[in-house]
């Protein structure tokens, strides 16, 4: 089982931006994939994970940058366990700065580039304070441009319809409680459904259906944090039943909804002056 150790904890930072600090010993997460960039810094111990067919190991001070929708797990590399901070950033936020270029990809999922450290650090500090809007937007722009520089993605994607992909994304966001087909997206964007599917994946790192499911899961996590039951959350977020909800949740986050709730520790008052 994953994340059953009662000493494990996850602390969610203040504000709406999805940032966590966590500690795990042993196996932390089963293999899973989510449609956001995972960008983090290992604070203590050895953070080990399987990614793109190989075992990776991040030591204290090491940076992790996982590409959207890539299968990965998580575990302690030593008996001492590991502690880390992560921020989860949706590809559309990166694309808003890059405007239709290839999404940046960091080889091996680990980087020691100082330029990256300098732009990631502001995103992972001050967990007891929410971001100001302009502060966050500036930090995202800096992150996107540095990721683009160090990934070697130099040329815009050719023959891709960024505008149609954005229209499809907006259509999905406005109809999370509805069944959506590729025919619906084709009609809403005026763009061939198969070409649109390819464009959406290129621009945002995942398929339209996966994007829809992940936004429903985001809503579900907020409901669970607010104290709603698993069953009520599943129905409210348009999953057919609790079993269906649990299956999708574990595929996306590597733990069941119950395990995720049990690990939450929002009572912790963290200060990053002595940890980063």
Walkthrough of the structure:
The structure is a single chain. Helices cover 41% and strands 19% of the residues. The chain starts with 8 loop residues before the first strand and ends in a 13-residue tail after the last helix. Helix 4 (162-173) crosses helix 5 (182-189). The radius of gyration is 19 Å and the shape is globular. The strands form two sheets. Strands 1-2-9-4-7-10 form a six-stranded antiparallel sheet, with helices on both faces. A four-stranded antiparallel sheet has the order 3-8-5-6. The protein has two domains: 9-155, Jelly Rolls, CATH 2.60.120; 162-257, Orthogonal Bundle (Arc Repressor Mutant, subunit A), CATH 1.10.10. It has 276 residues and is an alpha+beta fold.
List keywords for this structure.
10 helices, six-stranded antiparallel β-sheet, Jelly Rolls, Arc Repressor Mutant, subunit A, four-stranded antiparallel β-sheet, alpha+beta, globular, 276 residues, 19% strand
Brief sketch in words of this structure:
The protein is an alpha+beta fold and 276 residues long. The chain contains 10 helices and 10 strands. The strands form 2 sheets. The protein has a 6-stranded antiparallel beta sheet, with helices on both faces.
What fraction strand? 15-25%
In which order are the strands of the major sheet placed? Answer: 1-2-9-4-7-10
Instruction: Please report the number of helical segments.
Output: 10
Query: Main sheet, how many strands, which sense, barrel?
Result: 6 strands, antiparallel
Mean pLDDT: 87
- Per CATH, the superfamily of the largest domain is Regulatory protein AraC
Spell the H/E element sequence. EEEEEEEEEHEHHHHHHHHH
Q: Strand pairing plus helix content: what structural class?
A: alpha+beta
Number of extended strands:
10
Shape: globular
Which segments are poorly predicted (pLDDT under 50) over 5 or more consecutive residues? 266-276
């Amino acid at each position: 089982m994953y994340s059953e150790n009662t000493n494990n904890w996850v602390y969610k930072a203040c504000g709406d931006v999805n940032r966590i600090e966590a500690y795990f010993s042993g196996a932390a997460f089963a293999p899973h994939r989510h449609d956001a960039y995972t960008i983090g810094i290992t604070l203590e111990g050895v953070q080990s994970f399987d990614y793109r067919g190989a075992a990776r190991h991040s030591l204290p001070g090491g940076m992790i940058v996982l590409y959207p929708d890539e299968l990965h797990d998580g575990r302690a590399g030593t008996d001492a366990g590991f502690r880390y901070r992560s921020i989860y950033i949706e590809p559309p936020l990166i694309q808003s700065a890059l405007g239709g270029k290839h999404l940046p990809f960091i080889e091996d999922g680990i980087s020691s580039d100082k330029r990256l450290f300098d732009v990631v650090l502001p995103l992972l500090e001050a967990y007891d304070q929410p971001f100001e809007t302009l502060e966050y937007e500036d930090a995202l722009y800096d992150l996107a441009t540095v990721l683009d520089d160090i990934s070697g993605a130099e040329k815009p994607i050719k023959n891709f319809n960024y505008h149609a992909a954005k229209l499809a994304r907006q259509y999905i966001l406005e109809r999370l409680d509805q069944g959506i087909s590729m025919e619906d997206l084709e009609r809403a964007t005026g763009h061939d459904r198969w070409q649109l599917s390819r464009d959406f994946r290129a621009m945002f790192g995942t398929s339209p259906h996966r994007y829809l499911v992940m936004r429903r899961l985001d809503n579900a996590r907020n409901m669970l944090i607010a104290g709603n039951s698993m069953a009520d959350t599943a129905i409210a977020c348009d999953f057919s039943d609790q079993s269906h909800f649990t299956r999708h949740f574990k595929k996306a986050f590597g733990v069941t909804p119950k395990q995720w709730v049990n690990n939450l520790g929002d009572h912790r008052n963290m200060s990053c002056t002595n940890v980063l």
